Amino acid sequence: RSSPRGSTVGSFAVADYVVFALMLLVSAAVGVYYAWTDRSQRSSGDFLTGGRRLTALPVSMSLTASFMSAITVLANPAEVYRYGASIGYYAVSYVFTMLVTSEVFLPVFYKLSITSTYEYLELRFNRATRLLGTMLFIVQTILYTGIVIYAPALALNQVTGMDLWGAVISTGVVCTFYCTMGGLKAVVWTDVIQLGVMLAGFLAVIIRSVVLQGGVITIISDSQHGGRLNLTDFDANPLRRHTFWTLSIGGTFIWLSVYGINQAQVQRYISCKNMTHARLSLYINLLGLWSVLVSSVFAGMCLFSVYKSCDPWTTGLISAPDQLMPYLVMDILGDYPGLPGLFVAAAYSGSLSTVSSSINALAAVTVEDIIRPYSNFSEKHLSWISKGMSLFYGVLCIGMAGLASLMGGILQATISIFGIIGGPLLGLFTLGILCPLANSKGALSGLVSGLALSLWVGIGAQIYPPPPDMSRPLPLSTDGCNFTMTTHGLNWTSSALPMLADLYSLSYLYFSPLGTIVAICVGLIVSILTGNELHTVPFNTSVLPAQIKSRSGHLDLKKNRDMTFGNANPAFSDFEVLKPFGVVLYKGMAIKKMNNAVSG
Prior knowledge:
Oligomer: single chain
CATH topology of the largest domain: Sodium/glucose cotransporter
CATH class of the largest domain: Mainly Alpha
Structural class: mainly alpha
Helix content: 55-70%
Radius of gyration: 25 Å
Strand order of the largest sheet: 1-2-3
Strand content: under 5%
Shape: globular
Low-confidence stretches: 536-600
CATH superfamily of the largest domain: Sodium/glucose cotransporter
């Protein structure tokens, strides 16, 4: 095949398959290692949280890798190529996300010593709220994980010729294997390795592009002249797809729903050996997020510099934008055996890190929220059940990848739903932590209302896409092409828009803030209307440690005592848990010790 540069596009060679296979083998070996060294694991807590003995550095790298999927490796550079480097504004949202997570959410979850994030919802509200939150998380994670496995495999298959289902099944099986064998420790340390592979893949593309184009200055100059360095867009119009404000504000809410409350991320930082390491892991992770973002943005600038005069998508050399990076790799690295394999390994490292995090998190919430409360299994049995659930969800996610292959255009809508669900859940947890007067009726009403509105707007945006002037890609050129081409027609048409057109045209980055704000507002209004609500919290469960010391900021309560609280449950409201010494009851809220369980 000829490339726009006038050279021949390479193909996947034996050396590339060897590099890819080596990455899979190393990941599997980590699982075997921790299965052997931790073979004396006797509790589900050891399996799911690493015995809460992990340190900041590996956890921080795992936090970075967990949601930097292959979609990031392939889609971010393509985004810069088509829309410009404005996605670099995500760097601002990362800062606010880490500050709020470390100062608001982390102290609550860490000091309660919970394994599942959704345990908090029962402690603060009731069991129904906990189960609804758990089920929403399970549904969104299975959908998202299947797509994370399938989408990059499809893009890479169409460009490199790598076997589609061989790649899907091998990555799914290896990921399931080391999750089931090694638990959270294996997941964390494979994430560390995979983050290194991701950055190495970006580095290979960047270095070769810089050499070909004659230096970094040339790439920056090409991007500037092509309008790709659009970093001065401060338009406050919420209908604009990407501006400083949509990426900074919307991005903060989206990433807070990931780092603040998502089980996959929370499970990592609460596995640290103390609060200092947990907080430090979040801030070191900030450096990792910036590194991945800068690498992906500059890779997109390299992509534009190489193809600025002859766009491979417009000319029909590729069929979709997410094939741009694999095409560039085969074009400029095809003559270097093993380097295309390194980039494919980088893309799949993104998938493996996300899928393994999801499998481990799904196993945790299933055991802690669904199985443990309704059974009397021993810790040893729960440990085996946790491994069984990892295996079950691994197989289910591979099956979901198969279903994703039949979904076609629904893929983008499904990925959007992942963010749409996260917003209302963020609102629910924020309501519980920062609003002492919120009760269970308000919590459920807020969650359902926020979810309904987010889904309505998200689905409406798929049916009535935003106006072209709000989301039109930057121009691409074919003036420098020296071969006959078949162009893709880019026809911008507008459907007849309903009265709510502006709401449907809202930037997709504002779907999450919309769901969060509605959940909080409705939750507060309903809580005020329904009044104070007593709530029994069973301390004779394994949700809390046997004794919680007030000196460390916990409640000074003994095990086997049920407590009935008012709305401002002092154990689980941020106003109280964050007190440096002891517990002070929030003014006007009731708490009394009960000898017998009293229903609220």
